[in-house]
């Protein structure tokens, strides 16, 4: 066994890809011809404190140009308007050394004669979201070439600036507070707006701006390379979000007599009397996010508190079935608006809100209030769903829906861990998110962007931070390994040889760090950082993984990534180092087997004393090659059929590795293992959560549990790249009791299509795109596949 594995290490195949078609590309920003504008700000504000400031500038055009290209950015967040119309918001989140800007064509918004360009810039101050890095409050606008320089930001170019005195910070108290349930909140403060102080109409041409100030031009020039005192600019790396009007579907509860069963905001004004208190609970029917827009008239001195939640809460803060509302209350973050009595006042959150339920808590004063309209402005990536999967069991379509909703909601500037509590780009969440999102969209822009951004966080000891962009420093060394695993995923999906070459040094840095943790017995020992696996390994007691190291899980995790790195290095032509990584992987897998495998129980303990048995150790053992094929099959069967043998079982995030082990061995029934997702749907949830349903998940939209749709293709349909970049493909389905599979799966060469029926033997067709070859494998027998359609 040892000799065979070592020989495989020494003679890894060199999968040199030919020229391949790329995944769909999207127009992303480019560098301007010349940076000759300047960052501008308000001359009198604290540059890092909580503030919103407004900019505006008038300019004349002799004719409407065919194109009018500009590059725009702001710190922390900007919204840009032209002639009163909203054009864009941003920038994509990054850091000061990699500050992003958007490239826009303003021509469709311009007119002959006088035009108005305006922007608001928000800085959430010290309590801003953990995923927002900041230097100071500022705005930048740069024309692409001389005709567009008329709008360049600068204090001598006709720009004016105003500090908005109406907006106040509303802290979200998550430690010891009563509003938010569920622990760590890392997103932005919410809004408190006093309408009487707001500069209504500030972005309109007719607004009187004579009292506005001349902006201060900052001394630091916009730079894209070299020395800089501040932001080093780079183009956006993901597609911009698009907005869509999303009406609120149902008022679930209200004490307002005018609201009947068929009521919908916007059909006619909703009038509320003076000196009255009312609550209106909206149920959107599914979780979503966006910028809910409220338009009101009158109601001077009335207050409207708007609360947002993914679910309602019953006794002891239990959520229960999300569709059962009786006896439950809403808890969550909220915005507060104090009205001035004006007509058609529009209130909209500055940062997006996530919700299924919204409560309007309204207290009027001496003047009646009219709600003219209320709807959500849904924000999402415009990347379309291009894959498809149909089969005989309706559960697959139901799970597809909650996975796709989760993946899409969490694809914003970057890929987010969730949409309510943390909203950061975590490495552990990224891998299942990227594999599932890529499977459904065929797009790799988020994949490439995430690899670059996480690498930007690298510390001197070789580790990456656990999430990035990040204003703090969270480090879990296991996530540094996952970053390498994702490099391997990217290699198999699309080749990416030039990109991979730039990261080989970083791979070695991570392994150098891990080698420093190896104990005398050959297991990974204690680290100065938390050795995080996932949330549901017990943090104390028998869990050595979080106590003193000496862990099978941590060591096998290292062996797993060494294996991935060996394949990357071999692909890059570095055979000697590839063989070394492969032999190291084998060495650590065998050490763990020797010290932690319990031959009596047929499973792995997490510690040599065999005091704690965790499913994850046995799952990783299947994936790291310390067992023969027959032994692997027995081990995976034990994992699947005897959960009571373990002290701790895999969390739904770790099912990603369980499904990979099923994929490797051909053992197990994927449909049966979808049971936890079936329970999620039965509980009335509309997205995939952070935890199992019986654990009352904190986050209701968490992409690290949206990975089953990836395994629809790689495991159930059995479509897997056999060489980097899908140069070749292996199709070995594991349908279980499914009667048929009809699937379309995007690759860099084009769509793979399956139309198969499973009776006594498989029948149907397999269609490969031009330039792709492969093999069909069924019950140990292989059939060669060429491009085009093959009939079985």
Give a quick precis of the structure.
Helix content is 23%, strand content 26%. The chain has 792 residues and is an alpha+beta fold. It starts with a helix and ends with a strand.
Protein described:
By secondary structure, the protein is of the alpha+beta class. Helix content is about 25%, strand content about 25%. The protein has 15 helices and 38 strands. Helix 5 (about 475-495) runs antiparallel to helix 7 and helix 5 (about 475-495) packs parallel to helix 8. It is globular, with a radius of gyration of 28 Å. The protein starts with a helix and ends with a strand.
How many beta strands in the DSSP annotation? 38
**Principal-axis shape:** globular
Reading side by side through the largest sheet, how are the strands ordered? 10-11-22-19-24-17-15
Secondary structural class:
alpha+beta
Mean pLDDT: 92
How far apart are the termini?
35 Å
Helix content: 10-25%
User: What's the total helix number?
Assistant: 15
Largest sheet: 7 strands, mixed
User: How large a portion of the residues is in β-strands, by DSSP E?
Assistant: 25-35%
Sequence stretches where pLDDT stays below 50 over 5 or more residues:
1-26, 538-542
The radius of gyration computed from the alpha-carbon positions, rounded to a whole number of angstroms, is 28 Å
């Amino acid at each position: 066994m040892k000799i065979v594995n070592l020989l495989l290490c020494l003679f890894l195949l060199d999968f040199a890809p030919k020229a391949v078609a790329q995944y769909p590309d999207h127009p992303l920003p480019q560098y301007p011809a010349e940076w000759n504008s300047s960052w501008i700000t308000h001359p009198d504000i604290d540059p890092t404190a909580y503030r919103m400031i407004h900019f505006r500038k008038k300019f004349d055009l002799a004719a409407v140009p065919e194109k009018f290209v500009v590059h725009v950015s702001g710190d922390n967040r900007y919204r840009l308007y032209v002639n009163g119309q909203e054009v864009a918001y941003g920038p994509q989140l990054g850091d000061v050394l990699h500050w992003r800007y958007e490239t826009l064509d303003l021509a469709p918004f311009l007119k002959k004669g006088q035009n108005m360009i305006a922007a608001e810039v928000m800085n959430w101050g010290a309590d801003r979201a953990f995923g927002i890095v900041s230097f100071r409050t500022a705005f930048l606008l740069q024309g692409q070439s001389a005709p567009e320089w008329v709008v360049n930001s600068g204090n001598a170019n006709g720009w004016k600036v105003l500090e908005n005195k109406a907006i106040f910070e509303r802290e979200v108290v998550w430690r010891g507070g009563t509003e938010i349930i569920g622990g760590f909140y890392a997103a932005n403060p919410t809004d408190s707006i006093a309408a009487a102080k707001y500069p209504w109409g500030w972005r309109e041409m007719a607004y009187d701006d004579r009292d506005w100030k001349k902006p201060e031009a900052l001394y630091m020039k916009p730079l894209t390379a070299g020395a800089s005192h501040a932001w080093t600019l780079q183009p956006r790396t993901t597609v911009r979000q698009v907005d869509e009007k999303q009406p609120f579907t149902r008022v679930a509860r209200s004490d307002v007599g005018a609201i009947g069963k068929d009521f919908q905001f916007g059909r006619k004004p909703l009038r509320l009397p003076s000196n009255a208190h009312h609550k209106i609970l909206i149920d959107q029917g599914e979780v979503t996010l966006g910028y809910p827009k409220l338009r009101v008239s009158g109601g001077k001195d009335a207050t409207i508190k708007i609360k947002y939640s993914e679910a309602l809460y019953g006794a002891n803060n239990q959520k229960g079935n999300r569709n059962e509302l009786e006896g439950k209350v809403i808890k969550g973050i909220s915005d507060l608006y104090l009205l001035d009595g004006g007509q058609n006042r529009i209130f909209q959150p500055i940062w997006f809100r996530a919700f299924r339920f919204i409560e309007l808590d309204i207290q009027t004063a001496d003047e009646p209030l009219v709600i003219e309209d209320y709807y959500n402005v849904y924000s999402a990536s415009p990347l379309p769903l291009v894959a498809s999967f149909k089969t005989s069991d309706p559960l697959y379509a139901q799970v597809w829906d909650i996975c796709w909703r989760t993946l899409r909601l969490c694809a914003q500037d970057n890929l987010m861990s969730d949409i309510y509590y943390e909203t950061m780009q975590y490495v552990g969440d990224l891998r299942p998110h990227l594999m599932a999102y890529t499977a459904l969209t065929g797009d790799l822009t988020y994949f490439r962007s995430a690899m670059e951004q996480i690498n930007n966080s690298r510390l001197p000891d070789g580790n990456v931070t656990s999430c990035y962009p990040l204003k703090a420093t969270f480090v879990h060394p296991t996530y540094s390994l996952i970053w390498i695993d994702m490099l391997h995923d990217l290699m198999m999906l699309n080749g990416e040889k030039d990109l991979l070459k730039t990261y080989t040094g970083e791979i070695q840095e991570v392994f150098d760090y891990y080698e420093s943790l190896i104990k005398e017995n050959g297991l990974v020992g204690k680290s100065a950082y938390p050795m995080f696996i996932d949330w549901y390994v017990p943090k104390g007691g028998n869990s050595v993984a979080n106590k003193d190291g000496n862990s099978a899980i941590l060591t096998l995790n290292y062996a797993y990534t060494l294996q991935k790195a060996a394949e990357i290095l071999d692909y890059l032509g570095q055979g000697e180092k590839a063989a070394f990584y492969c032999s190291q992987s084998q060495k650590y897998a065998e050490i763990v087997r020797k010290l932690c495998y319990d031959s009596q129980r047929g499973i792995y303990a997490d510690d040599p004393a065999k005091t704690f048995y965790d499913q994850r150790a046995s799952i990783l053992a299947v994936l790291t090659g310390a067992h023969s094929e027959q032994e692997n099959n027995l081990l995976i069967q034990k994992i699947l059929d005897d959960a009571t043998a373990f002290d701790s079982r895999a969390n739904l995030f770790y099912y990603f590795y369980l499904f990979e082990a099923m994929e490797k061995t051909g053992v197990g029934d994927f449909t049966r293992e979808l049971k936890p997702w079936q329970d999620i749907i039965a509980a009335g949830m509309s997205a995939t959560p952070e935890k199992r349903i019986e654990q009352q998940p904190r986050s209701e939209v968490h992409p690290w549990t949206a990975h089953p749709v990836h395994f629809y293709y790689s495991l159930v349909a059995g479509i897997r790249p056999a060489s980097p970049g899908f140069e070749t493909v292996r199709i070995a389905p594991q349908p279980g009791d499914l009667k048929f599979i009809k699937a379309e799966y995007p690759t860099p060469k084009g769509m793979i299509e399956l139309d198969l029926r499973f009776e006594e033997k498989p029948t149907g067709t397999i269609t490969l795109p031009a330039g792709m070859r492969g093999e069909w494998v069924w019950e140990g027998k292989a059939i060669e596949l060429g491009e085009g359609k093959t009939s079985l």
